[in-house]
Amino acid sequence: MERNTMSVESYNDFQALPEGCIATALSLTSPKDACRLSVVNPTFRSAAESDAVWERFLPPDYRDIILRSVDGYDSVLAKFRSKKELYFHLCDNPIIIDGGNKSFSLDKGTGKKCFMLAARDLLIVWGDTPEYWRWIPYPESRFPEVAELLDVCWFEIRGKINTSMLSSGTTYAAYLVFTSKSGIYGFEYQPAEATVGISGQDGVKRTVCLDPDGEQRHRYQIVPRRIFFNHRLAHIYRRRGDLASERITEYPKVRADKWMEVGLGEFYVDGEQNLDMEISLTETKGGNWKNGVVIQGIEIRPKAE
Amino acid sequence: MSSSTELTEKKVFLLKSLDGVIFEVEESVAVQLEVIRELIEGDCARPFISLYNVTSEILALVIEYCKHHAETCSGGTSATIADEDLKTFDNEFMNVDENILLELCSAADYLDIKSLFELTCRTLASLIKDRTIIEVRKMFNVENDFSVVEEKAVRKEFAWAFK
């Protein structure tokens, strides 16, 4: 009988769930849940620290993205002793990639990918004409240069991102990130129009106000009116459904980094997709001169739940 | 099953649970337990194996799981139908008491059954995701053995996650 008998030895106390099980379960929740559940007890805390957990929370292609960093792959990775440290660094400190044209960061609660397309990565109509737009270094910007609007009548900027760069199963929102040195002028008469959609197709349109005081002006009905609509005309426009004021207007908000942002639109990223999404912002109807906007870029990040 | 015995005689293993119950399983089922597959491959498996970490209640469930997976995978059904079938089976299989789920997870880890381990961890994850700290402590039957200072430090580090 002895020869035919064997046992698989136990390796820990039968009662307790091994830390490896807890770590795997935590890695299947979300970064936010794993951090919250660290408070359960020291085993949970220790499990929630493990590289196995944070490797799963980091995007599958994070190494490829870090390879595109202007600081170099090794110098980014060398700074961190653990995957958790790397994760939180990427949440709070966007890394500059693609030769300074984009930044990459993570959404802290979910680990989903966020990008900002630098002004230099955007198509800005008249952007190369020094009387209209000026390219300047700006200390508060994460990128080497920002685009300062000196004066245009035709305001048009476009950015593109391929959905394969983004996290799947996620609704993303795009924001113009901007500021001003001494006020933004010329946008108070006519709202701008944002469009987000698959490149080459009709996108979803949105009315956008770039005037930082726009929301207050609107609330107290002190929007300066240049064009007078009589009732009949307004009625016709309303029937056609393209009167700008019929849509919800997006107003700028101040970000944690002191820049302003305004929502341009949203789109859903499916796992299978490989589509170019185009995001545009135009104000070409007013015909008046506009100036004062300083553009850092267009940020694309998961829509807050 | 053929009745011609010589050719189809299957190799069987006897698995003994912590509480002494003996289960007879065919090799195709036994190899789903990575610990046993390794023993077989290393040619050091004995027909009688004691599993000290698993009670008979849990081992019966584990064997049921492995049997179903072994049969579905070896059957003549197409991959998509087999996939669907396993998904339905797995969903029903996870419809167990939380204590049983914890023990199944622990057993899958100990016996090294990758698919069952992933399945139980996924189910655990969905259960703990929306629970409070106190509820999770109760579910896992663990004490809060942090000191007051330690717990305060952890809560401070992850204050953002409680918002």
From TrEMBL, chain A:
Domain of life, per lineage: Eukaryota
Pfam families: F-box (PF00646), PP2 (PF14299)
Database matches in InterPro entries: F-box-like_dom_sf (IPR036047), F-box_dom (IPR001810), PP2-like (IPR025886)
Location of the F-box domain: 16-55
CDD domains attached to this UniProt entry: F-box_AtSKIP3-like
Protein's name according to its UniProt entry: F-box PP2-B10-like
Lineage of producing organism: Eukaryota, Viridiplantae, Streptophyta, Embryophyta, Tracheophyta
From TrEMBL, chain B:
UniProt keyword annotations, A-Z: Ubl conjugation pathway
Domain SKP1 component POZ: 12-70
Name of the protein this chain belongs to: SKP1-like protein
Gene3D superfamilies: Potassium Channel Kv1.1, Chain A (3.30.710.10)
Source species of the chain: Olea europaea subsp. europaea
Pfam families hit by this protein: Skp1, Skp1_POZ
Entry-linked SMART domains: Skp1
UniProt similarity note: Belongs to the SKP1 family.
Function summary: Involved in ubiquitination and subsequent proteasomal degradation of target proteins. Together with CUL1, RBX1 and a F-box protein, it forms a SCF E3 ubiquitin ligase complex. The functional specificity of this complex depends on the type of F-box protein. In the SCF complex, it serves as an adapter that links the F-box protein to CUL1.
Pathway annotation: Protein modification; protein ubiquitination
Domain SKP1 component dimerisation span(s) in chain numbering: 114-161
Organism superkingdom: Eukaryota
Subunit structure as annotated in this protein's UniProt entry: Part of a SCF (SKP1-cullin-F-box) protein ligase complex.
Annotated GO biological process: jasmonic acid mediated signaling pathway; protein ubiquitination; ubiquitin-dependent protein catabolic process
PANTHER family reported in the protein's UniProt record: SKP1
